[in-house]
Amino acid sequence: MGPTASGKTELAVFLTKYLPCDIISVDSAMVYQGMNIGTAKPSADILALAPHRLIDICDPADIYSVGRFVEDAHAEIQAIHTAGRIPLLVGGTMLYFSSLIKGLSELPTANPEIRQALDEQATRIGWPAMHQQLVQIDHQAAQQIHPNDSQRIQRALEVYTVSGRSITAWRSETKGQDWLYPTIKLIIAPEQRSILHTNITKRFNIMLKQGFVEEVQQLFNRTDLDISLPSMRCVGYRQVWQYLEGKLEYADLPEKATIATRQLAKRQLTWLRTLTDAVWFNNQIPNLNMQVLELLNMELEKI
Q: From the CB of residue 211, how many other CB atoms can be counted at a distance below 10 Å?
């Protein structure tokens, strides 16, 4: 685990060379086909050497839920165990990690009428104002949701409207498959946030040179996609989409996208710091890969 742009994929690919492990991607953006540059998806050459499960499994027009991830991940874990190998879960979608290990709460089902009403209200006052409503209803959930994350704001408000209970209260009653697997939790991140910010800026500039705008243009040209879909709300894609709509100047695009990515990294680090049973590695240390490998070899001997 680790924040975005911390080198998780590179480390995971290295580990597959020395351990009998198969990679399962824990990334809510990499599940989508045709979204390669902006998600920093491993190249075809890397995937040939170290295949990643749960990458490129659905179309950007689809909505891939956390519930579907939990179901898919359990199936992949079981398949890897059956083959006598070790599942290596790699990614930065912390809600996926949490839901997989702790289980899912049985939230009320979606209500189309309420969702439409919330959408209409958001059109009038904007999602940041809707977020302020959520602050009054469920401060804990609001702290974990960005003011522009329309999907999660809508869902939290919908749950409260339908049931009269906050989504935090519902999630306190988690249910699901028991997590019965011995687990080694590793986190890689730089000790200085400025290093992470520099890496985020560099990576986005590289993405632009690789053709990120052109990648989003192909998606933009489709008639079945819009910015309200989870796929198009992914960090980076949302900002390029706004540029293509004429709502953002190209000169402002790198700054807007990197700021949004930094905010994502901050939320990721906040969640990671709640894990008391994880081992942290500074991703700037020499021989990081070998140090992680040595630790894993020692821990695996205990299992």
A: 13
Determine contact, residues 54/120, Cβ cutoff 8 Å.
Answer: no
The torsion defined by the Cα of 275, 278, 284 and 286, in degrees rounded to 10, comes to 170
Query: Taking a C-beta distance cutoff of 8 angstroms, is the pair 158, 114 a contact?
Result: yes
CATH class of the domain comprising 8-106+175-302: alpha beta
Q: How far apart are CA 160 and CA 170, in angstroms?
A: 10
pTM over 0.85: no
pLDDT in tens, 174-189: 555 567 789 999 999 9
Q: Which CATH number fits domain 112-172: 1.10.20.140, 2.30.30.370, 3.40.190.10, 3.40.50.410?
A: 1.10.20.140
Q: Taking the C-alpha atoms of 15, 16, 20 and 22 in order, what is their torsion angle to the nearest 10 degrees?
A: 120
